[in-house]
Specification:
The complex is a heterodimer of chains A (422) and B (274). Chain A has 422 residues and is an alpha+beta fold. Chain A contains eleven helices and 21 strands. The chains are: A alpha+beta (422), B mainly alpha (274). Chains A and B meet through helix 2, helix 4, strand 4 and helix 5 of A and strand 1, helix 2, helix 5 and helix 11 of B.
């Protein structure tokens, strides 16, 4: 079959200071110029003649692969492997630093459902707006209009502004518009991680239709191995910005799940922007690891959370209480709450102004999926810093451990344990 | 079936395919414009009449203070119609600037999730100003009838040209401000102040001739040529000065080139830092 996407030597470089902090204030730049004019000049010249030691980070490097027409290709890899960056480059949101991609066909990208929905506009108006943003022609939208409305099942509310929609209706309408665009190549980033399980099934069904009946090409990113196995014929494994393996989905997924070679250095460490939380106590660093000291979490692992903090207070901090909640990212439900304010906890009454909080759990049967942490830091019963979504980690399920012959639908549960029917 | 081939490469600064692309996406340009208009007047009580209200009240206040009390000269035409003609173009320009400078930030959700030529966003923002201009223009027509002015033929023909200059000047400066705003949010604070200063160095409330032989310096401000020519064309205040129009056109083209250049340069990374 003919090649529809040809990716040659793609690389994407970020400057670390670009990545963090986002925008800069003119004030800081100017202040810098006036405070150290010589330093500034020196750096500028270095930058221009190219020996600047600015911290660079290659999110992708030397990525090569091809996709043929009608294939469904999964892209997998750990957090920070470069999956999202790759999708962003393929959908032309951000240009690559090096290399070239040739695409023979119209690309539709679905990095989020409901992109460009405007809350003030009605369902009808949003169908047109969203369709146009996704690259559909007005004529196409008119032709598909009834189908879109029917799939979303919102006939009655067509002329109601979407801000009055329930979140379910909103997502249904958004997905429906996206599902009815007809690109040759569809690029999808974990959009299925939203909505209830019934809706997810409907989406999966629609995606299977798109590929099997209509013969379209799909690139699909997910952390959910069972979905990848179910949908994709071929998969690409990314690791630290490089293509580690390309091939048959079963082989790639198995390799990925059993890959323990890069465990040691892979512990999940997130340096946190000091801006997070200004009220006295800041979290500077978080590290989440399992009992082997890495971050390739499997169901049944113990969890170790290390959180560095610092504060403006001069004296020791008294009556500290820390509450860490673990949420399932898909359902946004709290799976577990770790509270330091129960008897027999070792967190000290008086803590230094700068230090580390350590929390270790027992074995946890978390199901496959993404989890995030919310952290609340209290002094004397008052919350001084509450940060949502502080850390994120991915859990995979090793089926052999549970003696399952095939994947049960674990992707919709928060927990997984072995069981036996008798 | 013919399938378009796309090549994704490190971005070049500028190529003519960019313009072709904007043309290919003209439907989206229409939808963006339509969305902005629709959303702007939703949930407002008097709706589109706001477009009249603002220049009208400004005109009344200006006429009272500058016209009646301070006796600012107005080339021999009644001050209200004199200032309103200026305000009409000025409102187009100033509101376009302040909206465009924010357009990338207000649309960041779309920019980071889907591809389309980014130029569409500022273009559509400025395009909505044509509607406001048309609506507010109704008052001008009314005033012309009331004061008994009939524009000459050249006057009517030159108006579209003046509008195009205003459009290009707004887009040019708007693109520049929008690009800087992605990186330095200071623009938000500087801009209202900047627009206010600009109002005073543009002959909106006074006639352009007030500076005597130094008037040409002001002509580098494209809006000066536009406003003076509009008055000449509609009210016959002075003879239509083609040199002035040419200077305006030239200054506008420069502004537009700078704007597009800056925009294209920042376009490479705005999805990453916005």
């Amino acid at each position: 079959m003919e090649t529809i996407i040809e990716v040659k030597n793609i690389g994407k470089k970020y400057n670390i200071n670009h990545q963090r902090g986002g925008y800069v204030a003119l004030r800081d730049v100017l202040a810098n110029v006036f405070k150290n004019p010589f330093n500034f000049l020196k750096n500028k010249t270095r930058e221009i003649i190219g020996i600047d030691k600015k911290e660079e980070f290659w999110a992708l490097k030397n990525v090569d692969f091809e996709v043929r027409r009608g294939e469904v290709v999964g892209i997998i890899g750990r957090n920070g492997a470069g999956k999202s960056t790759l999708l962003k480059i393929l959908s032309q949101i951000t240009p690559p630093t090096t290399g070239e991609i040739k695409i023979n066909g119209k690309v539709g990208s679905l990095l989020e459902v409901g992109t460009g929905f405007h809350p003030e506009l009605t369902g009808r108006e949003n169908i047109f707006l969203n369709g146009a943003i996704l690259g559909m022609k007005k004529k196409e939208i008119i032709n598909k209009f009834d189908e879109i409305v029917e799939f979303a099942n919102i006939e009655k509310f067509l002329d109601t502004p979407v801000k009055y929609y329930s979140s379910g209706m909103y997502v249904r309408l958004a997905f429906s518009v996206a599902a009815h665009m007809e690109p040759d190549i569809l690029i999808i980033d974990e959009v299925l991680a939203v909505g209830d399980s019934e809706f997810q099934k409907k989406c999966l069904g629609k995606m299977e239709d798109i590929t099997k009946k209509e013969g379209r090409t799909i690139l699909f990113v997910s952390h959910n191995m069972s979905t990848i196995k179910q949908l994709c014929t071929r998969s690409i494994l990314l690791s630290k910005g490089n293509v580690k393996m390309v091939g048959n989905t079963d082989e790639v997924v198995d390799f990925y799940l059993n890959d323990k070679t890069n465990t040691k250095e892979n512990a999940q460490e997130i340096p946190l922007d000091a801006v997070l939380g200004k009220s006295g106590v800041r979290f500077t660093h978080i590290k989440i690891s399992n009992d082997e000291g890495n971050s390739n979490f499997e169901s049944g692992d113990k969890l170790k959370i290390e959180l560095d903090y610092e504060s403006d207070l001069v004296e020791e901090i008294k009556e500290v209480r820390v509450v860490i909640s673990i949420l399932n990212k898909r359902s946004q439900q709290i799976v577990l709450r770790l509270d330091s304010d129960i008897p027999n906890q070792t967190i000290s009454e008086n803590m230094p102004t700068k230090g580390k909080i350590l929390c270790e759990t027992e074995s946890m049967n978390l199901g496959e999926g993404s989890y995030v942490l919310d952290v609340d830091f209290l002094i004397g019963g008052t919350s001084v810093n509450y940060v949502r979504g502080l850390g994120q980690f991915e859990v995979e399920t090793n089926l052999e451990k549970y003696d399952f012959k095939k994947y049960p639908d674990v992707s919709v549960c928060d927990t997984v344990i072995g069981y036996q029917f008798k | 079936m013919n399938t378009p081939t796309t090549t994704i490469k490190p971005k070049k600064l500028f190529s003519f395919t960019d313009l072709k692309e904007v043309w290919d996406y003209r439907e989206l340009l229409y939808f963006f414009t339509w969305r902005d208009l629709k959303v702007r007047y939703k949930q407002t009580f008097v709706g589109v009449s706001w477009a009249i209200f603002q220049p009208f009240i400004t005109m009344v206040v200006f006429s009272l203070f500058f016209g009646a009390l301070l006796k600012v000269p107005s080339n021999g035409v009644p001050y209200p119609i004199f200032v309103y003609t200026g305000l009409l173009f000025w409102q187009f320009f100033s509101t376009a600037l302040s909206d465009t400078s924010n357009v990338l930030i207000t649309n960041q959700a779309i920019i980071t999730k889907v591809y389309f030529p980014r130029l569409l966003l500022p273009l559509s923002t400025v395009a909505t100003k044509f509607i406001d201009f048309a609506v507010a223009g109704v008052i001008l027509v009314g005033m012309m009838i009331y004061y008994g002015y009939t524009p000459n033929l050249i006057g009517v023909l030159v108006l579209p040209l003046l509008l195009i200059i205003t459009f290009m000047a707004s887009v040019g400066l708007g693109l520049f401000l929008a690009s800087i705003n992605v990186k330095y949010r200071d623009v938000r604070y500087i801009l209202p102040f900047f627009i206010q200063i600009l109002l005073f160095i543009t002959p909106v409330i006074y006639p352009a001739g007030i500076l005597g032989k130094y008037s040409w310096i002001l002509a580098l401000n494209p809006m000066m040529g536009v406003i003076q020519s509009a008055r000449a064309a509609l009210l016959g205040t002075t003879v239509l000065n083609w040199t002035l129009v040419s200077i305006s056109l030239f200054a506008t083209a420069t502004l537009l080139a700078i704007g597009i250049y800056t925009f294209k340069k920042t376009e490479r990374y705005f999805a990453d830092i916005i």
